[in-house]
Specification:
The structure holds 2 protein chains of 2 kinds. By secondary structure, chain A is an alpha/beta fold. Chain A has 5 helices and 6 strands, in the order βαβαββαβαβα. In chain A, helix 1 packs across helix 5 and helix 3 crosses helix 5. By secondary structure, chain B is an alpha+beta fold. In chain B, about 35% of the residues lie in helices and about 15% in strands. Classes of the chains: A alpha/beta, B alpha+beta.
């Protein structure tokens, strides 16, 4: 039996009027929206070379709402969603993975019951069915990130990322550090290690339970 | 020279001498008032502090959650003596003002110093509403981690100061916003009762069955979406 092709929906965050994080005053041109787009495009090349089908939520410098991105992703039958960010702070050349949830000791958001009168999951609860798969993917991914980008943490974090909450796939956010370093464009070199980390994490995720170490 | 003219001249001389004597005093007063010039925000904070001092003389120690000095990716509770008073709204105001302005070092601030708490309400059902100025969104370092730490710092500090508050809704500039600064979700209230659990908890209700497609806001569900099972009900404590 031929295994189903893996589809990864790769989301370069921000774009258009939303520049995201800015570099320091010495390099005002370094903005998160451009960095994540360049990294995502390079990741796509590498992942497609390895047989993974990649869908980018944006191809250029366009303004997209979080709902627009989620709508694109949720229209795809089965896949993995990865939203890509670059922080304005943090240890240089490291990557932190997040799944949707609450950090230790913090409080989850309240989801009021809604009388929709239709048999469908409320948009705001789209991630509800994927909390455990997303966490597992984040754990596998963070192990790979720690190996491929030295200095990265060993464990993923929970965060109440709006973009993840409205996606109906196993979904993680990756945040690279940082746009404020001396040569932020050097972050683009992280694309291939990131792609390899993601491919390996997804392969481990898809392993049958009995074959897992 | 007439006698009247001499008297007038003498009075004028006395007035000049009195003016010369008063001049240094006036200069000192002007210098003092210049030093006391405050921004509107500082003055407002002083009024709040003065109000709380008037109500309670004894300071109470509560946990304020600033960034850890050892690891800025985490929060650390610092027992801080504050004049809190008994009124929950006043307690929240004093604690959140301290969170913003009184971090041990500038690097340990989870919220930008420019932030101000515009309004705070506590509804009878335990819902707290904290309305912060736009600076919270505009000045916070961009990123998932920094936004999550800011929200957690507010939630945990409020929980420590006002145990009556059961959930917290954060507004920015009087408005409900989708995210704090592009990342962390502010559309829902944060459940403070979940603070008591020791382990990280999923933030969304767990599914009862396979994952159906979500309904997009403002759009009718596609025909195949109507075949999906009903949305799972939130578990107790997650509403």
């Amino acid at each position: 039996m031929i295994p189903a092709p893996v589809v990864v929906i790769l989301d370069p965050a921000h774009g258009g009027t939303d520049s995201g994080a800015h570099g320091g005053s010495e390099d005002e041109n370094a903005v998160e929206k451009d960095l994540v787009l360049a990294i995502a495009q390079n990741m796509r090349r590498e992942m497609e070379r390895q047989g993974v089908r990649v869908v980018l939520t944006r191809q250029g410098d366009v303004t997209l709402s979080l709902d627009d991105r989620a709508a694109l992703a949720n229209g795809i039958g089965s896949g993995f969603f990865v939203t890509l960010h670059v922080a304005s702070t943090g240890q240089p050349n490291t990557a932190q993975a997040y799944s949707f949830g609450t950090p230790l000791g913090s409080a989850p958001p309240v989801f009021p019951p809604r009388a929709l009168g239709i048999e469908a999951v409320p948009w705001d609860n789209a991630q509800a069915a994927y909390l455990v798969p997303s966490r597992r993917l984040a754990e596998l991914l963070q192990v790979e990130l720690a190996q491929k980008l030295g200095g990265s943490p060993d464990i993923p974090q929970f965060a109440q990322v709006r973009q993840l909450r409205i996606v109906a796939h196993p979904a993680v956010a990756i945040e690279l550090s940082s746009v404020a370093e001396d040569d932020p464009e050097s972050l683009e070199k992280a694309a291939v290690p990131l792609a390899n980390a993601l491919v390996r994490a997804i392969a481990a995720y898809r392993q049958p339970v009995e074959a897992r170490p | 020279m007439s006698r009247a003219f001499r008297i007038t001249l003498l009075l004028l001389l006395l007035a000049v001498l009195a003016g010369l004597y008063e001049l240094p005093v006036l200069r000192r007063q002007l210098a003092r008032s210049g030093q006391q010039e405050q921004t509107e925000e500082q003055a407002r904070r002083e009024v709040i502090r003065a109000g709380s001092e008037g109500r309670q003389e004894k300071k109470e120690k509560i946990a304020i959650f600033w960034l850890s000095a050892d690891d800025p990716r985490e929060l650390a509770a610092v027992e801080t003596p504050l004049l809190l008073g008994a009124d929950p709204v006043e307690r929240a105001r004093v604690a959140l003002e301290a969170l913003i302005t009184s971090a041990p070092t500038p690097e340990q601030r989870p919220l930008p110093l420019e932030t101000s708490l515009l309004e705070f309400y506590l509804l009878p059902d335990g819902t707290a509403v904290a309305d912060f100025s736009d600076a919270l969104s505009h000045e916070i370092p961009s990123g998932i981690s920094s936004e999550q730490l800011a929200v957690d710092a507010v939630v945990r500090t409020l929980h420590a100061a006002v145990p009556q508050a059961r959930r917290l809704k954060i507004l920015i500039g009087g408005q409900e916003v989708e995210t704090l600064a592009g990342h962390v979700d502010l559309t829902s209230a944060f459940d403070l009762s979940a603070m008591r659990s020791a382990a990280p908890a999923p933030a969304l209700p767990a599914p009862a069955a396979g994952p159906p497609a979500p309904a997009q806001p403002g759009k009718s569900p596609a025909p195949e979406e109507k075949k999906t099972p009903p949305a799972p009900k939130p578990r107790e404590g997650e509403r």
